[in-house]
Amino acid sequence: MNILWGVIGILVILGIALLFSVNRRAIKLRTVLIALAIQIFFAFTVLKWETGR
């Protein structure tokens, strides 16, 4: 359930950013997804691996 709350939170923040964007066509989905993947990787590294702790 915690993972679901996290995903919903990410989607809400992205939705708010999209709503307040002046030029929505300038948002590149690939860049957003790559940045999200990097963030998930860092979170996994810090929370699950001994090296990150």
From TrEMBL:
Pfam families: Nucleos_tra2_N. Residues 8-53 form the Concentrative nucleoside transporter N-terminal domain. Keywords: Membrane, Transmembrane, Transmembrane helix. InterPro entries: CNT_N_dom. The chain crosses the membrane at residues 6-22, 29-47. This is Concentrative nucleoside transporter, CNT family. It comes from Piscibacillus halophilus.
